[in-house]
Amino acid sequence: xxxxxxxxxxxxxxxxxxxxxxxxxxxxxxxxxxxxxxxxxxxxxxxxxxxxxxxxxxxxxxxxxxxxxxxxxxxxxxxxxxxxxxxxxxxxxxxxxxxxxxxxxxxxxxxxxxxxxxxxxxxxxxxxxxxxxxxxxxxxxxxxxxxxxxxxxxxxxxxxxxxxxxxxxxxxxxxxxxxxxxxxxxxxxxxxxxxxxxxxxxxxxxxxxxxxxxxxxxxxxxxxxxxxxxxxxxxxxxxxxxxxxxxxxxxxxxxxxxxxxxxxxxxxxxxxxxxxxxxxxxxxxxxxxxxxxxxxxxxxxxxxxxxxxxxxxxxxxxxxxxxxxxxxxxxxxxxxxxxxxxxxxxxxxxxxxxxxxxxxxxxxxxxxxxxxxxxxxxxxxxxxxxxxxxxxxxxxxxxxxxxxxxxxxxxx
Amino acid sequence: xxxxxxxxxxxxxxxxxxxxxxxxxxxxxxxxxxxxxxxxxxxxxxxxxxxxxxxxxxxxxxxxxxxxxxxxxxxxxxxxxxxxxxxxxxxxxxxxxxxxxxxxxxxxxxxxxxxxxxxxxxxxxxxxxxxxxxxxxxxxxxxxxxxxxxxxxxxxxxxxxxxxxxxxxxxxxxxxxxxxxxxxxxxxxxxxxxxxxxxxxxxxxxxxxxxxxxxxxxxxxxxxxxxxxxxxxxxxxxxxxxxxxxxxxxxxxx
Lengths: 412, 254
Hints:
The complex is a heterodimer of chains A (412) and B (254). With 412 residues, chain A is of the alpha/beta class. Chain A has helices spanning 6-26, 40-45, 53-62, 66-75, 84-94, 99-104, 124-136, 153-175, 181-203, 214-220, 222-226, 231-250, 273-282, 306-315, 323-336, 360-368, 387-411; strands spanning 31-34, 49-51, 114-118, 140-143, 262-265, 287-290, 341-347, 372-377. Chain A folds into 2 domains: 6-180, Rossmann fold, CATH 3.40.50.11890; 185-411, Rossmann fold (3-Layer(aba) Sandwich), CATH 3.40.50.11900. Chain B has 254 residues and is of the alpha/beta class. The two termini of chain B are 12 Å apart.
């Protein structure tokens, strides 16, 4: 069933890219390229329009054009084993092509004036930014955040807060204007509101039947990624939330006849989003919650204390935490969303988002008493994905859960 | 007499089984799957039926081509069907190991025959039937001589790669260093078993099924050397999935 707000979403994403294209062509505004959980709010407060290469890479994945470009980057020295967002995006750049042309009539990706990144996700975002820094000959400003920081958390947050302060003079130079802390507070306040609203949208998935699935969320998360900090994103999520609440009130199911409910841990398989969505719908077993879509929620943002709270928020993202923290996080969601099984997507080119690799999947199954399944695939590189094998695995997983439910019913 | 049929369209071979109400095997067929699953399904089943009419016979399909069998009342995964077929032979907690043409499966069943968990091998064909075929072609040793040859082996040869292409390269370097054909053949089978043992910890009772075990009995012997628990090979290891499908057909319509 079509989500009505999808039309509004299309308009919003178009606005985002058309503004960037205009700025690139006319130089009416400065453009910052930023990693998806990088210091975007800081750049916005200085008047930059923000473009996210990861979002562009996800478009390459979902349009299945990534496969044309990954080999180009591979041939230019970027290994097939590293982030396929990076390789597909760089490959597309080297071929002078972009899915923005087909979607919006935009000739090329907007030209950056500065590149920003935060290694809170992975090292690849830094390598990615530095590639474009060399290509466009523009400054690259990085925030370096270490991973698995539980024991050193206080020091790490303090360091990140200082690093955020330290990039301000360089950003001012590119922006050609002075930093205004009140403007920063205002952007952060809007970004926080976006987080709260998106969180509420995702939480409607805890209702049975769920009004939306992980695959819907992957599409509707766009504004939370690329327009957080702007009022338009908040207006959009208010509309989407109202629609989802209405679905809940009326008992409208995203997947009619919902029988089982899944957690998706790891990246989406962008080029197979529709196939996966249809498969789970056919099996009447929706994916109702994920780590991935919950990764753009930053409750720690505090306009009264913008630098420290931004540091706290961007150091608190799931991907940067240790396994004990992650397991507790997933366990809480499993309980709240009444999950029957956990799907771990082992993405070949994204070790940071493949949490099954150090035994977490088995530990969680043992601890929570629910089964798990590991799906081998990738975010963008479909050479690493066997659809037939995945479908068989998922169908067998549903059969396994069916069998255990039948037994539970028989026993009670 | 009511009869039931199961058809398992695997990546390499298609297996059909016909059973009666007690689960007795009345007929079976094994043939190459080829590229026309619909036709091969029909022809294989007709052979297994040995002149009996297909009309009114409940059929459940399984295997990669399970959704291509128009006359099946239901399609079940090969995981469910191998579990069902294996439990029919060994009705107790068991680890089912199916070594097929293109993939391996390990399924852990509890005492009631329910799947506790399962795992399929990753995308590479190392450790599968296709791997053995590939090596036979590369070394020009006839496939039906591999088992016999391996039994003459006196020296252990290790093939460690979990990529078929890399394993082939390893074999080429072994040939260059003068390793005997019998030791090489044994090394190939050892490597198949090693690939399975690294999928999941195997303990207690193991039931081996699939085409590789049917055609190369030495594989079961290597398993017996390497694992502590009892290793069982059912009477028709290659038919386990098809039998499971037939048992599902019986269950659905009984």
